[in-house]
Every structure is written in structure tokens, then in C-alpha cells.
Amino acid sequence: MGIDVKPYKDQNSSRKEQVTEMFDNISGNYDFMNRLMTFGIDVKWRKKVVKMVADTNAKDILDIATGTGDFAIMLADIKPEKIVGLDISKGMLEIGKKKVKEKGLDHLIEMVLGDSENLPFEDNSFDAVTVGFGVRNFEDLDKGLSEIHRVLRPGGIFVVLETSQPEKFPFKQGYKFYSKYIIPFMGRLFSKDKKAYEYLPESAEAFPYGKAFNNILKKNKFISVQNYPLMFGSASIYKAFK
Fold first, then answer.
1. Which residues are paired to 156 by β-bridges?
2. CA distances for 86 relative to 28, 65, 180, angstroms
3. If we measure between CA atoms, which residue out of 235, 242, 240 comes closest to residue 46?
4. Is the peptide bond before 170 cis (omega within 30 degrees of 0)?
5. I need a labelling partner for 28 at 20 to 30 A (CA). Which of 124, 164, 169, 186 fits?
6. Which residues contact 171 (CB under 8 A, 6 or more apart)?
7. What is the pTM of this model?
8. Are residues 49 and 72 in contact, defined by beta-carbon separation less than 8 angstroms?
């Protein structure tokens, strides 16, 4: 299962190649744009995910689509033994590595270039896997989730923070306006790649959220699946176990 939305519709390259190129292009101001687009609320959402992982006493943690390392760095607060941050974009990882080093966490956090749909780890390697605003960029969603299930240890937790769609008036209408007009406008103002900030809301709209994503997780052998809507449904946390 894949989402047929690409950042650069005039190119013939694969969705994965385009997403990699896009994140390389926007890596320099990604953190700034993230805070701007969510009014900084994404930090509070990420803390909720960290708390869920902390409650399981996870020792070995994998953060997929780690980007510039925000989740990996926050997860360091719960004192695990090892954190691996994996991303397909060299540009994002380079910034993430600098942030990790500046915070003196390079003994704990390893930043790895890799593909979420072909994880370079053995079966049952991690107690917890997290993904923040990344699963909707998987080229093959089922393959990516299957790989996550494979590297997660039995009893391990999988937590996803992802955009979703408000369903109630007036939040549904307000969110659509914000996604369609305001986010691309901010992208044109502050980013050198305006198509990236057209793609991001388009991919969010195309992504199956709520119960639909719960069912996809169950299809990929995850158990005890729950979802928690945030900010009137504009984002959601999904928690599942192996």
C-alpha cells in the first residue's frame, strides 16, 4: 500500500527519490518551519510520545524518519541505553548529527542513513520504535510497517505521531483552509523549495488516519492498537505493540 502523492509532479523519479530530494532541499530551515507551522505545539505532542515510551522502560530505541533528530534528542531524557535515529535524507541527518554533538549526546545517539522500508537491523533489535511525522512519506506503507514490526522485540512499543484531519465543524473547514493556503504561503516566504510545502499538506490529506490507520497497523500484526487525536484532530498519536 502506498500514497500516490509526489512533491515534484513534473519529474519521473520515484516517490521515495523525490521525498529524499525534498527533505535534502528543506533541511536547512526544517526545524524553524516545523515550529512555525504548528505554533510550537508539536513539541508538546512529542513529549506525549516520549512519556509513552518511558512508561515501557525501553532500553534500545529506534527513531525512524528522525530528520534533524528532535525525537531522538528528547528520548535521551528517559535514559535508555541506546538510541538510533534513522533517516533517508543526508541533509536532514547532517543537521541532526550537529545537534546531537552540541548537546553532548553522541555517546548515546547514533544517526544512521537508511531506508524505513529496508531497515539495516536484525530481527527483534529494539524495545521501542517511534516515527514523528514520517509514516505518510513511506513509499510502501505496508512494507515500512512490516519492517518496523520485524525489528521490534516481542512486547515492544511502536508509537507514531502524524498529521490527521479534523472532522467536526468549524475545525475541519479551518484546517483545510490553513493546509491549502497558509502552509504553502509560509513555504513560499521562508523556504527555497515551495513545492515541498504544497506536498506536505497534500500527503497529509491523502494519509489514512484514525481508525483507518489503526486497521492498517492491525493488518501488519501490531496489537493493542490505540489512537489519540490531538488539537481537534489535526494530528494523532498511534500506540501499538508487538
1. none
2. 18, 6, 30
3. 235
4. yes
5. 164
6. 232, 233, 234
7. 0.94
8. no
**Site of grid cell 505532542:** 45
Nearest CA to 158 out of 166, 170, 150 is that of 150
Q: 32-79: per-residue pLDDT in tens?
A: 878 888 888 889 999 999 999 999 999 999 999 999 999 999 999 999
| Ranges of residues in the chain whose predicted pLDDT is under 50 | none
User: Which amino acid is residue 183, in one-letter code?
Assistant: I
Q: Are the C-beta atoms of 195 and 26 separated by less than 8 Å?
A: no
The DSSP result for 56-114, as a single string, is TT-SEEEEET-TTTHHHHHHGGG--SEEEEEES-HHHHHHHHHHHHHTT-TTTEEEEE-
Cell of 41: 505545539
String of b and e for 126-136 (b: at least 16 CB within 10 Å)?
Answer: bbbbbbbbbbb
